Amino acid sequence: MTLLHEYRKLSVEQEELLASLRLTSFRSSPFVILCGTALSMNSGMPIAGIQHLVQQYTTAGDSDDNQNLHSAWELIKPHFQTGPPRIRFEAVFDIIQQYIDPSLSLLDVLNSGSTTPTKVHDALAILALTSTVVTTNFNHLIEDAGRSRCSSKAVPFDVLYTDEHFKNACISINNTISPPLKGLWKLHGTVAKWENNEWSLIRADEMGGPIVTLKLLSLTRESEERRLFLHHLLRTRPVLVVGYSGNDDFDVTRWLRSVDTPQHILWVQWMENCAEPLFYNGVDVANGIPDDISKFDRGLIGLVRAWALRGIADHLTIAATSDPNAILLAVAQLYGKVQIEKEATTTEGTEFSLPLPTKWQSCIVSGAMLAHLSYFSHAKRYFDLATETAVVGTREYCIAKLAGAEAAIEIGNRVDRIQAMYDAQDAAQTAPLRESSWATRKAQYLSAIVKRYVEKDGAAVAITLLQTLLDGCGRPTDDQEGRERNLALDVAMLLAQLRRFLPKSDEPSDLIKEWLEAVPKIGLLQTKGMNLHEVALNKYQMASNIVELDDALNIMKEAVEIREELGHMRGLVASLNVLGSMCMRRADWHFPSNETYVKDAADCFRQSLDYSDKHASEFDQFQARIHLAVCLIRYPSSAKTSDELPQLLNYFQRQRSPDDCRTKVESDFCLAMSVFVCPSVSINEACARCQNSFNEILANYEPSNDARLIRILGAARFNAELCQNWMNRQPHAPTFDLTKRITTRNASTVGNAYWDMRIKQAETLLPADVKEHLRLLLDPISP
């Protein structure tokens, strides 16, 4: 049986008000209200209280004898407002739970009664009685408002927040034409449930508890039941979004963007000095109306762009107003009288209370926060201070020393990396019994990473160590401690990555495949980002047409999104570099090139360069510049200024490249190609100089056991021969072995269709001008 729409008889004034606010579709149920913490400062997660907590824990470790240290708080504070990397409260609670408060008892303040419901919560309680209220808040202020309307003091509507609740909702959706789904649905759990006439606490790691850490978010992201529930509501009912910023990038906002056929969303956007609401259609916003949408919430901007790409932006209306709550109240008053007079406030906040930190706690939290923001050099200093503060043989000494070793590896210096390996081994050898197993495996994992970077044939050496380590980790289905399981997932991911670097490698074992298949289900968000990066790279290597390349490109965009929201800057710049190279490949898959994709490629590389200079290692800084230089050399029109390319080339000439042979070759490769952009050099002279430069590269470097280096040096030989052919006014002569070296994927005999196409162009076309010469030269960017 279909659910009947309950129409209200309204006065003329009410009808006019609803029409003016675009709320006519909400005069009858069923409909949906989606709300979040922006309804008031005390509605859910008080950001000011979190900032104060972080400040308390990142200033206590600073002392007069550490004047050479940058204050951790000084570095951290700006990232509450700007990013990437941007601080998410879930990351703060991850760190607090890991090092300070395992049960996250500091959340008890949300159940303390220190805050009381406002008229906004009363309005939502009214609407929960009649339709569907969905919230990302996890306090119980809406329930308290509902209890105040009920003489028995019971919560007068259903409150649903567990996995089982959402599973049952999906069953109802599948078995009923129009299920009512009335009540309050808490997508991110709750801090307490009402039972036996009192609030009973639910801890963060308990069923239905508040989803307040990245660890928990990584699981919610895969909640198919929550996604299906929200998609059903979006498809079948009008949705009013109010007091919601759309910053739940890993789950809710992602689900909003991916719905196929939404009925209609009215999104209320707070806008300063906008007493009378201004309305915009999603299509207009996507086309730049109003001119400056930067004041809109990030989540809303992302939704507009995603829906515009799929041609459904007309299903979205934005109401910009300085009083969003007035629109919510206008709907609620159709269904009941708001009784609570207290106004919502943005000044009232909640303070999280923990004991004053010890010096070790302050140093370890400071280091962890700085490492999360990719300030690894600063983080290392604080981890070292925490190690010095701790007693050898204790848990505190072990985890501080391992954290310091991990930060040192990220910094990228060869000497520091070798020392980090010894520090990790020391931490494992002196670990207390309860930490010994995990510390030993963590040290073995870090040692494999170091050997990958510093030893000849490092990838092969690391693979052997990692395979042995994974063999001792059991299977994903085993009952394991969380950090042991997460370490095994990271080991499997690194094994998958390193296989790409070898000219020949065995197929992964069944055990490795099991762990890799488990990553999307149980991996942490950072591991999932790495997995998406690797999946996209593999598809990129194997793409034989534009459709397959677009598939890889879309997956890499998701990897970029996760890494950007996490603030995982080294991973982000790597994904941006590959995304840019995908766009560049997409541009010239057909001759002539698509300039839109060229621009997208250059933008990715510039973004990577900006982030790497601020937050990543010297290796990453070189890689960003190499990718951008190749783009500007092959597509001069993509340069922002006339000196953009010369500055990059000057960087390669004056800056000592890191201890990475591939980076050195790629830098020299760019310098060799750049001869053609010199206006005072004739084409014949450019061909001669370019040929000499590529021959020097071949004389200076050995391919070693690195599949990428083999391909790059193969491309250098091809270019040297091509320049010689051009001087004789001939295309490149076909050479089977050389073509195979450039186009064959390392672990199979399957050729790379893109490079095969590029080689065939060079074997059939004679360039007429400098631009065509540069398009036909092979570049060093893999795969």
Describe the structure.
It comes from Didymodactylos carnosus. Helices cover 56% and strands 6% of the residues. The two termini are 57 Å apart. Helix 5 packs across helix 6. Helix 7 links the parallel strand 5 and strand 6. By secondary structure, the protein is α/β, with parallel strands linked by helices. The N terminus is likely disordered. It is globular. Among the domains are: 260 residues, no CATH class; 123 residues, no CATH class.
Count the DSSP helices: 33
Distance between the ends: 57 Å
Q: What is the strand tally? A: 12
* Shape designation: globular
Structural class by sheet pairing and helices: alpha/beta
What is the CA-based Rg, rounded? Answer: 29 Å
Percent strand: 5-15%
Q: Which strand order spans the largest sheet, edge to edge or round the barrel? A: 5-6-4-3-9-10-12-11
Helix content: 55-70%
Which residues form runs of ≥5 with pLDDT under 50?
1-7, 40-44
**Mean pLDDT reading:** 89
Sheet bearing the most strands, described? 8 strands, mixed
